[in-house]
Amino acid sequence: MEQFRLPKIDMPHLQLPGSIQDVLAEARTRLAHRPKLLQLFMNCFPNTLETTTKLLEDGTTFVITGDIPAMWLRDSVEQVMHYVPFAKEDAELQRIINGLIKLHMRNIAIDPYANAFNEMANDWHWSTDDKTDMSPWVWERKFELDSICFSMRLAFAYWKETGRADIFDANFKTAMRVTVDLWKREQRHLENTAYRFERDNGIRHDTLQNDGLGMPVNYTGMVWSAFRPSDDACDFHYNIPDNMFAVVTLRQMREIAEFVFRDLSFEKEMAKLEGEIDYGIQLYGIYRHPEFGPIYAYETDGFGNYCLMDDAGTPGLISIPYLGYVNGDDPIYQNTRRFALSKENPFYYEGKVARGIGSPHTPPNYVWHMALSMQGLTASSDEEKIAMIDLLESTDADTGYMHEGFHADDPSVFTRKWFAWSNSLFSQLVYKAMKEGLLDERS
């Protein structure tokens, strides 16, 4: 197996849109009493625009993930999501986000099973011998249910923030149609799909078992997913946070179908699919835990087997309110949150410096900055939000940026020094706390 490692793409340095410069100016005043946090915010908030964003001549926008020269659907959305609230009156920012949405819709039509794409049809791939139906446009073809959900999430948020409906063209409706057909097909994966994925690199979580088909599942109404948001293979292929995200996405797409495309038949079709998935979550996705009570499982196969854990990637169990499936005060979510932030979660780590959620994607005892940011964004108390910001501030290893995972005993031992998604999520938390007055200097 040959892994195709490419030199870093030379990304042009974009002039920051005026609204983003205004945010940085505001931070210079409001965070002046916390110089390290200010510097982190000044580095991380514009990081996506300064280092990973390329405006293409056809009007679209290509956003690499950071240290990998490809665009993940999921990552690229989360890399720009903290900019959406400033787009309404900023034409430059609208051009960037509008272009990204349009490129996503084009990519979904090219291959709805793919998770990451190339800037052009250059036939670059993460691995040169994956056993799956590759395209020269596709960097990696790991089917992750959440990927398209993120694409639609960005479009919906942009529409609601700006009121601009010019993104909803024929390509957008085609992508919606492709998405619904895909999800309906993957409700009965074993019977209906030709999708396979195998990678012979000796890493178990990088490939699907059963000759690339995945482990057996029972029909539940939920949608099958091959891989998790971490790009690791599912143990049991009904990922509960992913299916929650699909429910929310269908609600959003229904609104677009009804009020933009005026297609009530399509809206009704999506309502039926939404109901089937949600029914499956409630019937098969809740586990009666002896300590925490009813909690949402991370994965199930519909045969009564459960994967009880949480992963640092979004969507995860901690991020359920962030996705919009239920509010943070939902009793089952509260039980689930207590589970995820306890040692009953096999990927929750406590060390000399930090405690938080990690991932099987990184070594044991590595806490993820994204998990700490998400814990802060979904916290019910101001004290927890501030505690997460303080912890994030103190664990950057004096690099000025967030990372993927870092050792809970020693933050100077970390993975991925250039990971734009993590920088963006941190920025979202800090800006939210700043606007809420939580970071103001106290007299």
Automatic annotation (TrEMBL):
Q: Which GO terms describe its molecular function?
A: hydrolase activity
Would you say which domain of life the source belongs to?
Answer: Bacteria
The protein's matches in Gene3D superfamilies, at most eight in alphabetical order, are given as:
1.50.10.10
A biological process term (GO) from this entry: carbohydrate metabolic process
Q: Read off the Pfam families from this record.
A: Glyco_hydro_125
Entry keywords, A to Z: Hydrolase
Which residues lie in coiled coils? none
Q: InterPro entries under this entry?
A: 6-hairpin_glycosidase_sf, 6hp_glycosidase-like_sf, GH125
Show the PANTHER family listed in the entry.
MEIOTICALLY UP-REGULATED GENE 157 PROTEIN (PTHR31047:SF0)
Spell out the protein name for this chain. Answer: Glycoside hydrolase family 125 protein
Tell me which species this is from: Paenibacillus albus
The top of its lineage is: Bacteria, Bacillati, Bacillota, Bacilli, Bacillales
